[in-house]
Amino acid sequence: MKFQNNIFGHDFRVRILCIAIGTVVNVLLSFLVYHFNIPLFLDTVGTIGVTYLLGLFPGIIVAVLTNVLCALFNSAYIYFIVINTIIAIITMHFVQKNYFKKVSKMLKYVLIISVVSGFVGAAIQWTLFAAPQSESINDAVKAFASSTNIPFVVSFFIVNILINLLDKSLSLGLIYTVIRFIPNAIINKLQSMFWRQRPLSLEDVEEIKKAGKKAKFSQQKKVTIMLVFAISLMSFVVSFVSIFIYNENRENEYRSNARSAVQFAAKTINADEVDEYINLKEAAFEKESYQQTYELLKNIKETVPGIEYLYALKIKPSGCYYVFDVSTQEVEGNPPGFFSDFEEAFEEYIPMLLAGEQIPPIESDDISGWVLTVYEPVYDSNGEIACYVGADVSLQKHNDYMKAFLIRVLIIISGFYILLLACGLWVTGVFMVYPLNSIALYVKRFTNSGKNQEDLDENVKKLRKLDIRTDDEVEALFRNICDMASVQTEQMRNIRRFSDATSKMQDGLIITMADMVENRDSDTGAHIQKTSAYVRIIIEGLKKKGYYAEKLTEKYISDVIRSAPLHDVGKINIPDNVLNKPGKLTDEEFEIMKTHTTAGKKIMEDAISTVNGENYLKEARNMAAYHHERWDGKGYPEGLHGEVIPLSARIMAVADVFDALTSPRVYKPAFPMEKALKIIEDGAGKQFDPKCVEVFVDSLDEVEVILRMYNQDI
After folding, report:
1. Side by side, which strands form the sheet with 385-394?
2. Are residues 387 and 353 in contact, defined by beta-carbon separation less than 8 angstroms?
3. HSE of 96, CA atoms in CB hemisphere, 13 A
4. pTM to 2 decimals?
5. Which of 95, 355, 564, 624 is the one with CA 20 to 30 A from 66?
6. 532: closest CA among 428, 652, 381, 390?
């Protein structure tokens, strides 16, 4: 399948359009159910559809964009990005497994995404808001809890899962209905758009996965670990640095606000009346000046952000007396003249406070809780210290707020984390991992083709059909490998042609040499042809029965069959008067005849040294030298026995004797086949290798064909 080489070409625009449509569908449906207060979400229809048609990464893009845009009319949506992205991941898993064509798997899919989205959504809402964010869902939870007597929080989780079950069933139904009207050709085109090569089959993907499992540390694992580490580190740094800076700025802001508050409050207090207020105690509230000052202090506390307590204290060596105490609505302030001991955190500053000096802000965790306290001295008309105005900023509340803020940041960033991870895995997968693994897979198939020229040609075609177009070094590597494979295939073709021609020439020379010998022997009509045929029958029979499996390789079998005609090459050294004697040989003549084995061995060894040890000639040497050896060790020329005798010679021994028995000689007529076979069988374990005799006898039909071909009288 061809596709646009330019990543910003037609296919790219189609993908962007599909992502936009999916996002608009999600946002529009979500807005409608939100506007009409329907207890549904319908914010994953586009996510499921785009994931099904285009893949995981586009689906996650739709998921993130949906929640970001929905946050414009419902700010809570920003916290549910992770749910939408998880649904995209689960959807892609079912798509890859081809489960959407099975009803049972689709029901399982709906159940899984409903439970996951319902549980996670309820957990997020309860953690951040301690209540459902939809009024209709909140009402449904209350009704369910009251009717079942199940605690509200448990009811919330159950109802949320049930609502998601209905929501996701409707969403999948909408998607299924739409997809039914899309032609399969268009669906296949959309699903293959993101490939920068010919899409891999499921079998190819499984084979790549198996190869990855065998690798100690596959490229996919390296990329995944690298991306997880990099994105996690980036997310951690961005989140915590932002929170640290925000926290530091917020503390500085509260510190500055507290300082401004006490400075302004100090100006509102009439220092000359401080002692009078303390002496009047609660009666001070009846004085108009006290009430006016108290109201001003109250306005300052309520106006300045972050101030938890605002008060004025008269410092004495024994302790401190309250002049004003503007507290929260939950905590009643201390009346004028109320005495309090110094808190432990202030003890080291008592001399400075008694002297009316400015002290630095103090952090403490005592009566008022964990607070930051800022003091400002108030001087009377004589310049003497009258009291201190103090402002407490609650660090506990600030800390609790920062924890909640951190949780919200982590929840929001988790969705973007998945988006970045999916983006990284998609880019590396499409442009690096899958192309490289595909190249490795098809190169492996090419190398496993061995010497079969048809397989080599076919695998070169398949390799080129990968059509990798990543516009980078990977594509250049692919092109070079394709060219190399093509060149190698052509070289193998030329080598094979040359090898075949050479083999034919060698075989011709062998037959010529054998004919030269046979032409000198007037008594061996078609002997080399028949023995060669019998050798083929025996050696192939041994192979079929699994005998001598470690020895009978394809090359060995070829070497033996090709070398068989040379088994009597040594007869070229035998004098004509002995070789062609019409009668029985004398003992002396027989000894001369026996030398054809040693002469054949020497001829073959000389030939081997001339052609640098060509392997097939080694078996020719073995057959020429030892085809008259016997299994019981009574043969010649060396008296070898059993499996010490080369296998090729043991095979030739059966073929040679059988042909001698069934062929006419000047000193005897041809034996009938039955009699010849009886002699061969009787010689098993004595003269012949029993296994060679066994497979020869088992192949009588083939043997008879050879006999009838060359012995017309049989």
Report:
1. 339-340, 319-326, 307-316, 385-394, 369-379, 362-366
2. no
3. 12
4. 0.61
5. 95
6. 652
